[in-house]
User: Fold Pirin family protein from Actinoplanes sandaracinus.
Amino acid sequence: MSNPPGTADHVLLPGHDVPLGRYTTVRRLLPHRDRRMVGAWCFVDHFGPDDVAGRPGMRVPPHPHTGLQTVTWLVDGLVEHRDSLGSHQFIAPGQLNLMTSGHGIAHSEHTPPEHPDSAHGLQLWIALPEDARHGPARFEHHAELPSYQEGPVTVTVVAGELGGRRSPARVHSPLVGAELIYTAAGRHRLGVDPAFEHAVLVMSGAATVAGTELQPGSLLFVSGGRTTLDLEVAGTARLFLIGGEPFDEPLVMWWNFVGRSHDDIIRAREEWMAGAERFGVVGGCEADPLPAPELPTVRLKARDRHGRTW
Assistant:
């Protein structure tokens, strides 16, 4: 296997297109064959900007999750969230939906019939550590998040802590998720936690990050041990930063489940298909629950953040 462009501590991870339902295609950036995680962040999908004028937009029927937190972040559009806890929440740009699956939850996500003409955003997962993955499910919506101006960039702290500001969202490991908006060309040295590894994606515009040119559709991984991250943009741009302490627990990730073993995944799939109480029922959604795909014929193996099997 050839290494992606970059140096030992800068690795460019190109995304690939994945259909999400009938009407939406996303660029999947994590997990990647060369880097499965960044801190506890284990999944990153970037969708849009898409023209959804006169179109249904996102149509994701009820489906299950275990062992993770979902983060929904919009730049454009509107999404309607329902889950098996009874939560019903619309999310607009600049707001955060954080759903913690714990032992199990189900949810649906739809673009409502009356919606803006453009859809653009991120769907991310955070892996729950062992001491949190068996806990109860919960849902949080945060309409206001801390932000600050630093040179040419406005930073919004979506999750964790950055620049002395902390998001109100409840997470279970040391991490950061932040949006960086540039309204003009400029250079910027962002202070970061040296205990964290980081990654940056460009949602719009273009940027040079830690000396590497970055366009929409790729994720740049940057190793830990640094106190600053150099960023430069030639014009308006929107970036998203993720990071965290290296996550040392091996994971099995399959479909919408994050577990620790093949048996974890088998059990979750069987219980979802049987309609077990573990996942509950998503009320108010007319779509049928999404059936789980067939399991592979080989035993699923736990892998560490580098992709090595255990």
